[in-house]
Amino acid sequence: MRTAHDHETDREDETAGAPAQGELELEERHALRRVAGLSTELDDVTEVEYRSLRLERVVLIGVWTSGTQADADNSLVELKHLAETAGAMVLEGVTQRRSKPDPATYIGRGKAEELHGIVEATGADTVICDGELAPGQLRQLEDVVKVKVIDRTALILDIFAQHARSSEGKAQVELAQLSYLLPRLRGWGGSLSRQAGGRAGGNGGVGLRGPGETKIETDRRRINTRMAKLRRQLAQMVTARDVKRDRRRAREVPAVAIAGYTNAGKSSLLNRLTGAGVLVEDALFATLDPAVRQARTPDGRGFTLSDTVGFVRHLPHQLVEAFRSTLEEVADSDLILHVVDASDADPERQLAAVREVFAEIGAGDVPELVVLNKTDAADELTVKALRTREPGAVEVSARTGAGIGELVAAVAAALPELDREVRAVVPYHRGDLVSRVHQEGRVVAEEHTADGTSLHAWVPERLAGKLAEYAGV
User: What backbone torsions phi and psi does residue 69 show, to the nearest 5 degrees?
Assistant: First the structure.
């Protein structure tokens, strides 16, 4: 069996004898290009290990239509991490330079034949495309490469299906998967996809009655029925979530949402700030279910911190729709902690991708505090460039705890201002009001007297009204 190294050597031998630089550039422009670091020697893993692990062996393919070659390589590296998170073993990664994807086979018929050769040489059983394929592209590319083909969207949906834990998360993922599957259902050929029942044709009559509903049409009907049921279930879950959210609003507790690119360290940051004990794993989309925890500013003001699902470049629209109720936690918050992985190869691309989702879910106007995480592993020049682009950003390391104090202070400064200054002596039998002042407001001074608890504090308007009868006592 020929290894990826043999193919690399062949490519170097072929291009070494090229007569002109222009021909080399033209060939490079239209050919598949192997990306260094995305190859695995098959000899390193025995067949017994393959059977025991049951990993899918995949080849990655990306079409480079804009940006630099480094952008294309970074995109494919991210696809590699997604594939590994899903449990696949990446054997090879190739990119192709095109003005736009081929409408028939995504990469063109000739390049699809070349990809088929790479699949045979590496022993792969799956091809993953770095983009969303139309149903026709999916079928035609599979016909050429002779193995299963999936796109980036299907891969992300598979990861979500593996990581969903709560009933709401599972329902959201299933709805997204069915939305993706519905236009991609396949029958036993085009001739069987439209069979008539009852009176068929213009005149009808004996001999023109078809067998009725076909299997593919039955599947479509069942999928639509299941999707309607899932939407009803999610609507009921949204009602319960809204009740909890309205309760927090009634108490006027500020809400802070932790959002950002997948694997940027959001859950680690939540654990560092609140001791939440949320699952932390060095994997993409490790946690999907939102977690809400209580936290306090240095001056004692309470607020909630919500950990949300991670975003990714070209987040499938099916997921955005299915997780819209969850993502509303971001849109309804008073402040967004936008966590960025400063050690990533292209953190600015992360910023742009996340803000694109913010705009899609209606969170574009929510105040945002950029948090540069993983600074202990980041390049100093990269961090400096990010600080220049985002002047108000805070540098932290959720792993070491560096910068957490500065982050808490920045959050306290960014929370909505309290409306009213009050001075009141609250009777001891109204300890509930004192507790609310500590939870919702900022206490300047507190003293226990014979008549009750003397308070000087800044509180929300509604709470100030409840304290008015004790003012000046």
Answer: -65, -35
- Residue 164 and residue 86: Cα distance in Å, rounded? 13
pLDDT by residue (tens digit) across 170-222? 888 888 888 888 888 765 444 444 444 444 444 444 555 555 556 777 888 88
Rounded-to-integer distance, Cα 160 and Cα 176, Å:
10
* CA–CA distance, 148 with 52 (Å, rounded to integer): 21
> Number of C-alpha atoms within 13 angstroms, CB side, residue 349?
16
CA atoms within 13 A on the CB side of 73: 10
pLDDT at 40 over 80: no
* CA–CA distance, 22 with 28 (Å, rounded to integer): 10
Q: At what angle do helices 152-163 and 69-85 cross, to 10 degrees?
A: 40
Neighbouring C-beta atoms of residue 105, cutoff 10 Å: 25
Mean pLDDT of the chain: 77
Give the C-alpha separation, 430 to 140, whole Å: 73
The residues with which 96 forms a beta bridge, in sequence order, are 32, 63
| Beta carbons of 96 and 61 less than 8 angstroms apart | yes
Q: Of 78, 84, 69, whose CA–CA distance to 34 is shortest?
A: 69
Rounded to two decimals, the pTM is 0.68
